[in-house]
Write a structure and sequence with these properties.
Oligomer: single chain
Shape: globular
Number of helices: 14
Number of strands: 11
Distance between the termini: 24 Å
Structural class: alpha/beta
Strand content: 5-15%
Strand order of the largest sheet: 1-2-3-4-7-8-9-11
């Protein structure tokens, strides 16, 4: 067994919105007018964000996490592979996790297979390949019909893995991507193929497909109350039905944190960035305004079983994360854990034990948070929080999962 794996996730938000953005604009997604982009202020922003991720590697985080979004202020990474290429040249230790390429938005999945293979060569085998179908805002951006999105997604994902593992050229007789010649050049370094992570939101259908393929399941929810524990239990049950056993490194969660010397100082330093993130970046996505853009055009692709699970947990009047109105409500959601090293350690350790989760994908830079504060929080976390989490989680995992052989990914080639 190994200790909890701690990753630094960066969304690369646009931090230069006016203070009245929430009052004036309908959404921060899809329809947000690009006249709000300021080239003068944004010059150097990508370099600042890339440098923050490189700093995480220097601090000893287990990896850096990127993802794909389009036409929004929440995440300025329409091509996370470009950022991954930059990181491959300025980092040397941590994994580069791309969670993930939105396969139905790509004309041909072989493009994704080729770019991931290139990144593996460029990073000495440190890339974790994430695949995702894409949420409603992204499918709206690209006018991708929702009805067959999942079917296209799994065909694309299977074709990519096949191209990594099977010698070519071979023909792929697919419904959505028929190809006469599949003949990948270059091939990825890791054998039999790179680690694959799939995000989901407790859909039983997604869990089943992930379990059948032996991949890691990542819960994309931002709130970590009872639903996170239920998702872990559900996924463990699915694995059992497919002849597999759950261990903490088959499961990952997204969370956010800010660490300072004291609880009060932490709240004071991060408060502006937190509310910018909640009220601006999540507007139209995890806020009730603009939720019409949550599903892509056409019939929603949510399976009936997943919709039933959603309705079971639905409570009239329940607030979405972006709708919280005060710090107490935010604190109760456990989405953003703020405090001293002692407070953050205690709360995250409790989450690890309750959710039995081995991969924590942590957002440190929130909204318009200044560079020096994001780096300060990362440094305090790495020096004061991470060692305790690793020590305590190793003992807990050894006790809860005795004799479980955690399959290690292929070692990076240096």
């Amino acid at each position: 067994m190994k200790p909890v794996q701690l990753f630094c996730w960066h969304f690369m938000a646009y931090p230069y919105l006016d203070k009245d953005f929430d009052e004036k604009e309908y959404s921060g997604w899809v329809t947000v007018p690009n006249r709000l982009w300021d080239n003068g202020k944004a010059r150097g922003l990508y370099q600042e964000y890339i440098d923050q991720l490189a700093y995480a590697d220097e601090l000893g985080f287990d990896g850096m996490v990127l993802n794909e979004h389009h036409q929004n202020i929440y995440g300025l990474m329409p091509s996370p592979n470009l950022i991954a290429a930059a990181l491959s040249q300025c980092t040397s230790h941590g994994k580069i996790v791309i969670l993930g390429n939105l396969l139905p938005l790509h004309l041909n999945p072989m493009r994704v297979a080729e770019e991931y293979a290139m990144l593996h060569e460029m990073s000495a085998g440190r890339v974790t390949a994430g695949f995702a179908p894409g949420g409603g805002p992204e499918t709206f951006n690209y006018a991708i019909p929702s009805a067959n999105t999942r079917e296209k997604f799994w065909e694309a994902a299977d074709l990519i893995v096949r191209s990594w593992t099977e010698d070519g050229p071979f023909a792929h007789e697919g419904r959505h991507y028929p190809l006469r010649y599949v003949n990948l050049w270059p091939k990825p370094l890791q054998k039999p193929f790179p680690p694959v992570w799939i995000p989901g939101s407790r859909s039983p259908a997604t869990m089943i497909e992930v379990a059948k393929r032996g991949y890691c399941y990542f819960l994309s929810s931002r709130s970590h109350g009872g639903e996170t524990h239920r998702a872990q239990q559900e996924f463990a049950g699915v694995l059992e039905k497919h002849g597999d056993k759950y261990h903490p490194f088959r499961f990952g969660i997204l969370m956010s944190t800010y660490v300072a010397e004291t609880d009060q100082q932490a709240r004071e330093e991060c408060e502006e960035g937190v509310w910018y993130f909640l009220k601006n970046c999540l507007k139209g996505h995890l806020r009730r305004e603009g939720r019409q853009l949550t599903f892509g055009p056409g019939i929603p692709y949510i399976p009936a079983s997943a919709w039933r699970e959603y309705l079971k947990g639905y409570k009239p009047g329940r607030k979405l994360l972006g709708d919280v109105e005060n710090w107490d409500e935010l604190d109760a959601s456990q989405s953003i854990i703020v405090g001293s090293p002692e407070t953050v350690t205690r709360r995250i350790q409790n989450l690890i034990e309750k959710a039995k989760v081995g991969n924590l994908l942590i957002q440190f830079q929130l909204g318009n948070m200044p560079n020096h504060l994001a780096r300060k929080s990362m440094k305090l976390f790495a020096e004061k929080v991470a060692p305790a989490l690793r020590h305590e989680s190793l003992g807990y995992f050894d006790k809860e999962y005795p004799g479980v052989n955690v399959e290690q990914p292929a070692e990076a080639i240096h």
